[in-house]
Amino acid sequence: MNTIQAHHLKTSVGDIPAEWEAARAKTLYRERKELSKSGEEELLTASHLTGITKRSEKNVGMFMAETLEGYKIVSPEDAVVNTMWAWMGALGISSEHGIISPSYGVYSPIGEEKDFRFFDYLFRSAPFVADINRRSKGIWSSRLRLYPDDFLAMRLPIPPIPVQKNIADFLDKETDRIDGLVKKKLLFLEAVGQRIEALVADVISNTSTPRLRFENISRRVLRPVVLSEHHELVRLGLYNRGRGIFKKLAADQEGMGDSDFFFVEPGDLILSGQFAWEGSVALASEDEQGCVVSHRYPVFKAIAGISTAYLLGLFRSSYGDFLLNEASRGSAGRNRPLNTWRLGKEKIPVPSKRVQAAIAQALSDEQQLKKKVDRSIQLLIETRAALITAAVTGQIDVDTYGKTGTTSATLDRIEEEIK
Q: Which end of the chain is more exposed for a tag (fewer CB within 10 A), N or C?
């Protein structure tokens, strides 16, 4: 790695090259308190993943105020900070005109010209977010706040304008390449998912396939947990749209709450009692052995002669989505609990064992591929974060870094794997 050696100026991201400058954020930005009189401007939001974006471009189901009058005005090149989630990296530089919640901090640039792209990368870099963590005030992580005075007191690295531009150009190119590789990786999983959907569609379209009630081909599984007998337990949750299982932090009896819990074993079909209608359904694997779910997650096993994995493939299909929606009834909004009695009455196509095995194998292939893809994507994310940190702190000379081939060694290997 071609690294700049002479570092001595201290900033919120650590040491920087001697030829750079360092200054408090208050010398580059001032708090902007201009409010919208109509509330009709484009509504913006801040995310640690995407920075400052239009809210309309994100799948956000959170509460919306009746009127956006009084929301803060945001202009391109303004720094926008989610006061409550800045410690998670929810901040950046806006490229949009719009408005944002009054709970956000908005800061307009002052002083000399600057490349706003450099500061967008800087503000969302790992060491900068770590310093935000140290400066944020509050008791628990969910209540931490980064107040204006604390943001404006942060000491920023300020490279010469040409260097800012070179770093921003370099990071635009390299992060675009990394993001493109991530998308290609995800396309692999999408292709396997489409194959499973096609196999299930063939089953459904075959009118000669027998159909049996779900209650006649499966049984509900209950393995009660006696909390007092366990020091800590790992609870499971389900992502929507068939994206699998996630684990919550291990908790003791006091931290488990008032719910009843049940053990999960490999091969269990788990449904979300609250969000089955959103496709929250998954099959437990060896990784979930010994974990638990609350009573809000009904667990099923297929009877002898029926593949539980096939049932997962079915429920992940558009037809399965229809069945889960029909069995989920509620009064309004997202309050649509799953009625397991109603689901039990739904008729399920039961193909030959050979077809069931093919669908089960496709699901197994998808699971194995997902593990590989997840590891590879995590490596890309780590590479992206390390590259941004190295560039905005001057640890690498971007003018020569790319020419040595160092930049692309990891990315070249991943591209070859994709081919």
A: C
pLDDT value for 408: 60
CATH number belonging to domain 21-157:
3.90.220.20
What pTM did the predictor assign?
0.76
Point out the residues of the chain with pLDDT beneath 70: 1-9, 58-65, 140-142, 331-334, 402-411, 414-415, 417-419
Three-state secondary structure of the chain? CCECCCEEEEECCEEEECCCEEEEHHHCEEECCCECCCCCCCEEEEECCCEEEEHHHCCCCCCCCCCCCCCEEECCCCEEECCCCHHHCCEEECCCCEEECCCCEEEEECCCCCCHHHHHHHHCCHHHHHHHHHHCECCCHHHCECCHHHHHCCEEEECCHHHHHHHHHHHHHHHHHHHHHHHHHHHHHHHHHHHHHHHHHHHHHCCCCCEEEHHHHEEECCCECCHHHCCCECEEEECCCCCCEEECCCECCHHHCCCCEEECCCCCEEECCCCHHHCCEEECCHHHCCCEEECCCCEEEECCCCCHHHHHHHHHCHHHHHHHHHCECCCECCECCECHHHHHHCEEECCCHHHHHHHHHHHHHHHHHHHHHHHHHHHHHHHHHHHHHHHHCCCECHHHHHHHCCCCHHHHHHHHHHC
pLDDT in tens, 174-188: 999 999 999 988 888
Given this model, what pLDDT does residue 1 score? 36
Q: Where are the domains of the chain?
A: 21-157, 210-350
Please tell us whether the domain made up of 210-350 is placed in CATH 3.60.40.10: no
- Predicted local distance difference test score (pLDDT) of residue 127: 95
pLDDT at 371: 87
Measure the CA dihedral 331/332/333/339, to 10°.
Answer: 10
Assess whether the region 21-157 and the region 210-350 belong to the same CATH fold. yes
